């Protein structure tokens, strides 16, 4: 059965999985240096249409990243996506170099599984528009949205879901 692969900075691949993020884990994220302006607890429970997931290396409980997304009529909308501080691009001892790819890839996979043809949309931080366009071939939509189409979604899945 295929599974996600996280690429360590050494080049070694580690099997990865997604699990639903729990409320006690959302509190711990802030203590561990995650973005203070992101409130992951908002996505816990039935009051929000998005569901939050954590990215884990199989056999390890350290959260490598998190994503909250919701299923829309014709696509998946990513409400929030965040790498663990030690997986961010500018971290001097970055652990996994493709955690963003795997987080977005999971949204793409879910888009296919829910018959949305791989389409995924999101609103990135302003400074990240060029990054998503270059790295993921994300296209600009209206109202600040960016989206991944079928081709971009398949590329991510084929790269890291093996």
What does this structure look like?
The protein has helices at 23-31, 99-113, 129-136, 150-160, and strands at residues 4-7, 13-20, 51-57, 63-71, 76-83, 120-122, 139-140, 146-148. It has an eight-stranded mixed β-sheet with strand order 1-2-3-4-5-6-8-7. Strand 4 and strand 5 form a beta hairpin. The protein is globular and about 35 Å long. It has four helices and eight strands; from the N terminus they run ββαβββαβαββα. By secondary structure, the protein is α+β, with helices and mostly antiparallel strands.
**Contiguous runs where pLDDT drops below 50 for at least 5 residues:** none
Distance N terminus to C terminus? 8 Å
Q: How are the strands of the biggest sheet laid out side by side?
A: 1-2-3-4-5-6-8-7
**Binned strand content:** 25-35%
How would the global form be characterised?
globular
Helix content: 25-40%
């Amino acid at each position: 059965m295929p599974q996600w692969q996280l690429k360590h900075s050494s080049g070694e691949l580690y099997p990865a999985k997604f699990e639903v993020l729990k409320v006690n884990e959302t509190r711990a994220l802030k203590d561990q240096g995650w973005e203070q302006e992101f409130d992951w607890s908002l996505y816990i429970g039935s009051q929000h249409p998005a569901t939050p997931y954590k990215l884990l290396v199989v056999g390890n409980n350290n959260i490598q990243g998190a994503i909250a997304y919701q299923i829309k009529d014709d696509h998946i909308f990513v409400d929030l996506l965040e790498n663990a501080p030690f997986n961010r691009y500018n971290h001097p001892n970055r652990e996994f170099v493709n955690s963003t790819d795997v987080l977005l890839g999971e949204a793409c996979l879910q888009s296919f599984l829910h018959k949305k043809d791989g389409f995924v949309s999101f609103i990135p931080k302003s400074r990240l528009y060029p990054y998503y366009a270059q790295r993921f071939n994300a296209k600009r939509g209206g109202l600040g949205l960016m989206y991944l189409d079928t081709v971009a979604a398949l590329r991510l899945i084929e790269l890291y879901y093996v």
